[in-house]
Amino acid sequence: MLTPPYVLLLLADATGKCQIYDPAKGYQVIFTSENYEAAKLWLLEDEYEPLEGRLLSEDLLT
After folding, report:
1. Is residue 58 part of a domain?
2. Count of domains in the chain?
3. C-alpha dist (Å) from residue 61 to 27, 36, 39, 40, 45
4. Whether this model's pTM surpasses 0.85
């Protein structure tokens, strides 16, 4: 694992579409998928490891 870890943010909307954002690049969208499973597979293929926890998009906007 990298120190400090390189973190990406996966958010889903109400319809289930997912976007992966890169905080190091000004929260630029780096991947979009129709569902969570496709986004998760993309991350795993690039050897990212999941962290436990969830965050609501409303929490980011406040």
Report:
1. no
2. 1
3. 13, 22, 22, 24, 30
4. no
